[in-house]
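Researcher: Hi, I'm a grad student and pretty new to this. My advisor asked me to get structures for two proteins we've been looking at. I'm not sure of the right format, so I'll just paste the first sequence and hope you can take it from there.
Model: That works fine. Here's the first sequence with its C-alpha cells right after it:
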Amino acid sequence: MTKTSQGLSPALIALMSVATGLAVASNYYAQPLLDTIARAFAISPNQAGFIVTSAQLGYAAGLFFLVPLGDMFERRKLIVTMTLLSAGGLLITASSQSLGMMLLGTALTGLFSVVAQTLVPLAATLAAPEKRGKVVGTIMSGLLLGILLARTVAGLLASLGGWRTVFWVATVLMVLMALALWRGLPKIEQDNHLNYPQLLGSIFSLFIGDRLLRTRALLGCLSFANFSILWTSMAFLLASPPFNFSDATIGLFGLVGAAGALGARPAGALADKGKAHLTTTGSLLLLLLSWGAIWFGHTSVIALIVGILVLDLTVQGVHITNQTVIYHLKPEARNRLTAGYMTSYFIGGAAGSLISASAWQHAGWTGVCLAGAIVSLLGLLVWWRGYHRQPA
C-alpha cells in the first residue's frame, strides 16, 4: 500500500508534468542536431543515428531495471536521485570529445531519465479513480511535449552557441528540477515485501498472466516505432535540398508535433468513459494514413506539417489510452506495469531509430515512409487480432 501525506493538487500536477517533460526531453535534444553532430565528429548519418538509439536503449534498460524500484523504495528520494544522475549523463555529453563518449553520455542520460516513468504511476496513484485517465493524459502530454519541444529548444540554442550549449543548459535545468521535486513532492512510502529479484520476476509474471498488458505493450511498441521512424530521419530530409534548413528551423518542427500531442489529451478522459476501443481503433487507422501526407513532405512543407500533426496526435492517443487501461489492472503494481509496458514502448522507439537511419541511408525518404507504413499496418493487425479478446 502507498502512504501519502497529501493529495494531488493542480500545482503538483503541473510540477510533475514539467518534470516528466524535462526528463524525457534529455533523450531528444540531439535529434535535430544529428546532421551537425555527424559533421563535427566526421561520421555518417547512419552512425549518427546510433546516438538516438543509445539513448533509447538506455531508457529501455532503466525502465526494466530502475522503474520497478518505485514499488519498493520511498519515491521522492528515488525520483530526486535519478534526476540528478540524469543530469550527470548530460554533463558527459556536453563535454564529449568523441562519438564513443557521446554515446556513453546519452546512454546514461537515457538510463536515469526514466524518472519520468516513476512520476506517471505516482500521479495515477494519487489521482481520484474517476479522474485517473484525465490526470494520466495531462502528465503524458507533458512527456510528449518534452520530447517534441526538445527539438525546438535544441535547434534554437545550437544556433546561438553551438550544439554543446544545448547539453550544458539541459544539465543545469535538470539540477534545478531535482531541487523543485524535493520541495514539491509528498513523501511516499511503499509497503512492499518483495526483494529486488522478486520484483523484476513479477514483471514477467504480469506479462505472462495478462493478455491485455501484452496486447497494449505491443501496440505501444509499434506506435512509438512509428514516432521514431519519422523524427530520426526528418533532420536529414530538412537539411538536404530542396529545403536546406538550419538547425534552428528544423527544431521549429517540434512545435508542430507539440500541437499534435496536445490534441490527444482527451484520450484519457474518453478511456475513463469506457471508450478505449474507439480511441485505439481510430488512432491506429489515422496513424497509417498519416504516412501518405508525410511521403509528400519530401517536396511539400505543408504536407509534412499535416503528416506530423496527425502522426503525433495518434501516437499520443494510443499511448494515453494504453496507460489508462493498464493502470486499472493492479493498483499495487503500477510501477511494475509501467516498467513492462514502457520497456516494450522504448524498445520500439530504439528499433524505429535504427530502421529509420538504415532506410534513409539506402532508400531515402521513400524508404523511411514505406517502413513507417509497414509498422503501422503491423499495429492494426495486432489490434485486430486482440480487439474481441480484450476488455475496454
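Researcher: Oh nice, that was easy. Here's the second one.
Model: And its structure:
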Amino acid sequence: MEEKPAIRSFKNLIVYNNSYQAMLTVYKEIIPRLPRTEEYDLKSQISRSVKAIPRLIAEGHSKRHQNKGFQKYIDDALAESNETIVSLNQVRDLYNDLVNTKICNDLIDDYDKISRQLYKLALAWDRFNKRNRQTYNVSSYVTD
C-alpha cells in the first residue's frame, strides 16, 4: 500500500489543490465571457462561490484543533461547491453561445468531484475526532 504524505498544511490537501485549480479555470475561461447583464447576479455569485471553497478549506484547517471547527468549514465549502455546480449549469444552459460548453461540463465534473472529496473528508474528520475523543483520558493529565 502506498504511503500518503503527511498533511502539514492545507496545501497538502488534494481537495484544496483541486478547488484552487478549478477556481483559476472559472476565472480565466467562464467569468470573462459572461455578459454585462450578469455583472451583479450570476457573474458575482459564481465569483464568490469559487473563491470561497479553497478559502474555507484553508481557514478550517487552521481551526482543526477545535472540536467542530474544521467540520463546519468543510461543510460550508461543500455547500459552496454544490452552489458552484448549479451556477455552472446555469451558465452552460443560458450562455452556451458565449462559453465553451466542454470547459463548462468539465468544470461541473470537477466541482462534483470536489463535492465528493469534501464529503469524504468531512466523514473521515468526524471518525478521526470520535476516535480521539474516545482515547482521550483526562485523568492522565491531572497531577496529585
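Researcher: Is there anything I should tell my advisor about the second?
Model: You could mention this: The chain has four helices and no strands.
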